[in-house]
Amino acid sequence: MQNGKVQEDVADNSFANYVKFVSKLGCIADIMDQVEISPADITAQAIVKLFDKAELNNQTFHVFNPHLVQLSKLLEADGRSIATVSFENFIDRLICYLQHNGDCALIGRFLLRMGWQENQELTRKFDLLILQDKTAKILQDLKFTWQRNPVLWLDNHCFEKFPFFSGTFQPC
After folding, report:
1. Where does residue 158 rank: exposed (0-12), middle (13-18), buried (19+ CB within 10 A)?
2. Tally of CB atoms within 10 A around 37
3. pLDDT per position as a tens digit, 123-136
4. Residues in contact with 121: Cβ distance below 8 Å, sequence separation at least 6, in sequence order
């Protein structure tokens, strides 16, 4: 993403649809606000650091940015207002959106990304445990560091390719 480009089929991208939906809804649940963003070019740099080290052969690495980002703050820095609300309030707004919008494809993609299916405990999805300590330590020893400030990514125009940031749903 160093050159400001994102994948060509951004309309089918799971994260892009997640951002699109919460943007249209105008809010995000507090337990959903922390997201992992690993730009492809930076992740590739990490992989290259690990690539040709003989002592690292035949090992498994979990290469992703360990610094979670508050999506609401990232969007706010890009001029988009997203309220952080309780999970219960978010679900109420989601239900209201479902009742008043025919955008079934976007809603379906959002629900699919969330893994919300019938008879599942909705909040269980957010019990996230990241086990990356080994990879992070090796990358640190190889003088690789992940960016902590995601606002810098906005300079790469990563959201310009998301052609859906128009309008916000008016809650019930």
Report:
1. buried
2. 19
3. 555 555 666 788 98
4. none
- Cβ within 8 Å of residue 82, ≥6 positions away: 22, 23, 26, 27, 28, 71, 72, 75, 76
Task: Quote the Cα angle for 154-156-162, to 5°.
Answer: 70
Residue 162 lies in a domain: no
What residue ranges in the chain does DSSP mark as E strands? 27-29, 34-35, 69-70, 83-85
- Report residue 149 as tokens: 């400030």
Confidence category of residue 168, pLDDT binned at 50, 70, 90: low
- pTM across the whole model: 0.71
* Residue 54 belongs to domain with CATH number: 3.40.50.720
